[in-house]
Amino acid sequence: xxxxxxxxxxxxxxxxxxWASSSLGVFICIQCSGIHRSLGVHISKVLSLKLDEWTxxxxxxxxxxxxxTVINKRxxxxxxxxxxxxxxxxxxxxxxxxxxxxxxxxxxxxxxKNLQCTFPxxxxxxxxCSPSNSSSYGFxxxxxxxxxxxxxxxxxxxxxxxxxxxxxxxxxxxKSHSVAGMIQFVGLIKVNVVKGTNLAIxxxxxxxxxxxxxxxxxxxxxxxxxxxxxxxxxESLMLSIPENVPPLKVVVYxxxxxxxxxxxxxxxxxxxxxxxxxxxxxxxSINESMQLGKWVASGENTLVKDGxxxxxxxxxxxxxxxxxxKVERGVLDIELECLPLTQ
Length: 343
Hints:
Elements: E1 19-21, E2 26-28, H1 30-39, E3 46-48, H2 56-65, H3 68-75, H4 92-104, H5 124-127, H6 139-147, H7 151-161, H8 177-180, E4 185-197, E5 209-215, E6 218-221, E7 232-242, E8 248-254, E9 262-269, H9 272-282, E10 290-295, E11 307-312, E12 315-323, E13 331-340
Antiparallel strand pairs: 1-2, 1-3, 4-7, 4-13, 5-6, 5-8, 8-9, 10-11, 11-12, 12-13
Helix pairs in contact: 1-4
């Protein structure tokens, strides 16, 4: 964090970034972190420098990758002159377009490290054309450059884009990138996946469960716990809260090595009451612990019991116990904490 290059966001230059992508090795600001989450954890695993607990392996990996200066030399090796890097005051749309080009499409990348630069220097003059022709240099041009990549680079890009299981009736749907990039965030939600109880059997006598969380276009997942129908994850994951608050979708899968992961149930959490309570607390002068509200269990939701929203040591939290749906059995315990965007 003390290194000069890491004192500014790798993508827009904002000072004192409080977030990092442990998988890419860059320090980023809170606005850019929301776009990184939309890329998916297979591309960018976003962690807070202060709010998340880092494992030794995650710290070692960040050190190994080298930080902003090293990573930007690789991912911003050949930015064409008609594309401008975002600034601290850039819009969410400008950030989203640039970040996706940089990390997902690898359009500016160094050909070393097996990355293909889709805008080689010899073609940069061709890209800086008169304003009358500028409309032709959008995504169709990107596609033509993509088609000129080496076979190795095309295969690598295809693998990155095909990450995850195939479409099924139980898969959490993803919104288009064009919509996702325009979303403004109003806060953060820390989801602690505590444990599962009496989960369904998907192997011979047991299962290898993990949990996938979805909030809008963001996807995160827990680690896999082998051979356990009563797994204890106690694993915290962070998601950005979109302005129009969607439900938090929870899906449990059984990890398979040689076939598609098996579905083990799903549930939805209405986080709007928690967000409302957190906003009300921000504007108040309350200090003592107290109950702020609750999400009432009913036949219309998946709650086993009421989800009580409490204020504890200045933190707005909620514990929920979910009965998994579209499956023969299973209960999931989850703890939620709503954080203001300023953190």
